[in-house]
Amino acid sequence: MKIVFGCDPNAQEFKEHLMAYVKELGHEVEDYGSEDPIYANTAIKVAEAVAAKKFDRGIIVCGTGIGVSIAANKVKGAYAACIHDVYQAQRACLSNNANIITMGSQVIGTKLAECMVKEYLSCTFDPNGRSKDKVQRIVDYENE
User: Fold this and answer.
1) Long-range CB pairs of 123-129, under 8 A, 24+ apart, other chains included
2) What digits encode the pLDDT tens for the residues 56-69?
3) Is 26 helix (H, G, I), strand (E, B) or coil?
4) Domain 2-143 classified CATH 3.30.1360.70?
5) Are 40 and 32 in contact (CB under 8 A)?
6) Is residue 57 classed as helix, strand or coil in its secondary structure?
7) Of 7, 62, 82, 93, which one is the catalytic site residue?
8) Which residues of the chain, if any, have pLDDT below 70?
9) Is 62 known to be catalytic?
10) What is the pLDDT of residues 15-30, one digit of tens each?
């Protein structure tokens, strides 16, 4: 898979650690930066690239993961889930078809983050599964 990363300046080291880990898992990685102190700019840039299908998925980090999640979710076609545990990482994909995950470098340790990323990237949404109508309602509302 092709994975795009972004973060705010405070999460640079955390993001670099995760990027190296994702490369070890065998995925292609691209970095959309971390220099902009306005985290929304980076989150939007990542979300636009994922929504345009330039990348299969995105991972964005800031201090808590909340701000970048809110910003990314403003982009049509971007579905960002702010995750804090492995089960949420799994369900972000399986139940919600999230194409982006966000997390906080100040609230999650690197080993937990690795487990969450690995779980998220190992899952594939089933478009005929039990969550299809729930996810479709989100897409329909976005398109209204």
Assistant:
1) 123/90, 123/93, 123/94, 124/93, 125/93, 125/94, 125/97, 126/94, 129/94
2) 999 999 999 999 99
3) coil
4) no
5) no
6) strand
7) 62
8) none
9) yes
10) 999 999 999 999 999 9
